[in-house]
Specification:
Blueprint: E1 2-5, H1 16-30, E2 34-38, H2 57-64, H3 84-103, H4 108-118, E3 122-127, H5 133-137, H6 155-162, E4 171-173, E5 176-183, E6 189-191, H7 194-201, H8 209-220, E7 231-235, H9 245-257, E8 262-266, H10 273-292, E9 300-305, E10 319-322, H11 325-330
Length: 338
């Protein structure tokens, strides 16, 4: 793995960093089938803190709620729902985070990924982020096409609608998103509106409107009451299974069969086991593709992050670009200048 430190990049002269950067640029320009994996680091410049840095969310949570939170990660663990005080902190924090996301803007890194897609180079982006900035920049995050977008009078369209197009999803949200809330009982979903964000910030779980409606109807017809659900963010916490995990696995398998020739990993601490496995698997596939192609620079794996990777990644990444993600991608033209 070659380390390229952006702060050491020479304005002129043939330095090791500038030579390495030229090789990375060739890899991006030569690529025809690129995979991208992103973490919280790509959204920091939008105003959303990352998780594990000294100024990240985990540290902020410990400072803000010292009596409730000993480890910021605990607030993203499904076991928190067994502790009433942690539930209050969780809802309050999610309301604040929703407000931050509403104010956020897409970053140059999001725009870079979108350009890869527009130029036909992007196989898919897999993001750990729950801010939905990928959707805002124009990358499709839904798994299936909206039925309203298909002409229901066309029988051929009906058949297509029932068969999933594995190329349709451009960005897979591995941990869900904060655009949507879901009921803990009936699983009805609704938008995470500004009004609901204000309720969340009070620390109290809002009741599910669908459950309340059903309860009223049961009362009218003389049936006994049932447990009603509350709304929670439609995100995947630690110790939870992704409800679309099987589908995500099939997309991942499909992408590997398409023989990706470039993998770019941006803004992640490489701490989550599932992400680590995904990156290693994709890296092997990309390196294998280098054996099959004659294109100069193809078959490379690039890691862009402020902090260096932990031990054990030297054989996974070909290049580690140390520095700001936005700065790095601005140095990576999609195509060669004519």
């Amino acid at each position: 793995m070659q380390r390229l430190v952006l702060s050491e990049l020479s304005v002129s002269g043939d330095t090791e960093t500038s030579t390495g950067l030229a090789q990375v640029q060739r890899a991006v320009q030569a690529s025809q089938r690129c995979l991208v994996i992103t973490g919280a680091g790509i959204s920091v410049s939008s105003g959303i803190p990352d998780f594990r840095s000294p100024t990240g969310l985990f540290h902020q949570l410990k400072q803000k709620y010292p009596s409730s939170v000993t480890n910021g990660r605990d607030l993203f663990d499904a076991t928190l729902f067994h502790d009433a005080s942690m539930v209050n902190v969780f809802y309050s924090f999610m309301g604040e985070l929703r407000t931050l996301i509403d104010r956020a803007t897409c970053t140059p890194t999001h725009a870079f990924i979108k350009r890869l897609d527009e130029h036909g180079k992007l196989l898919r982006c897999y993001t750990q982020n729950i801010d939905s900035l990928e959707k805002r920049v124009g990358l499709e995050t839904a798994f299936v096409q909206d039925e309203d977008a298909v002409d229901s009078t066309d029988s051929a369209s009906k058949r297509r609608k029932q068969t999933m197009d594995k190329k349709f999803t451009r960005a897979v949200q591995l941990h869900g998103d904060l655009d949507t809330l879901i009921c803990t009982i009936c699983h009805t979903k609704c938008p995470f509106s500004h009004k609901l964000a204000l309720e969340f910030r009070e620390g109290t779980p809002p009741p599910c409107p669908r459950c309340k409606e059903i309860e009223v109807i049961r009362g009218i017809v003389g049936k006994r009451s049932q447990t009603t659900g509350v709304l929670r963010p439609d995100i995947v916490l630690y110790n939870e299974m992704h409800p679309q995990g099987e589908l995500i696995g099939s997309l991942n398998e499909y992408d590997l069969k398409r023989r990706p020739d470039l993998l770019i990993v941006i803004g992640t601490s490489l701490k989550i086991p599932g992400i680590k496995r995904m990156i290693r698997e994709m890296s092997r596939c990309v390196h294998d593709s280098a054996q099959r192609t004659q294109r100069a620079g193809a078959g490379k794996v690039i890691f862009i992050n402020r902090d260096e990777p932990p031990r054990g990644w030297d054989d996974v990444f070909d290049y580690f670009i140390e520095g700001d993600a936005d700065h790095a991608v601005n140095l990576l033209p999609i195509h060669r200048d004519k």
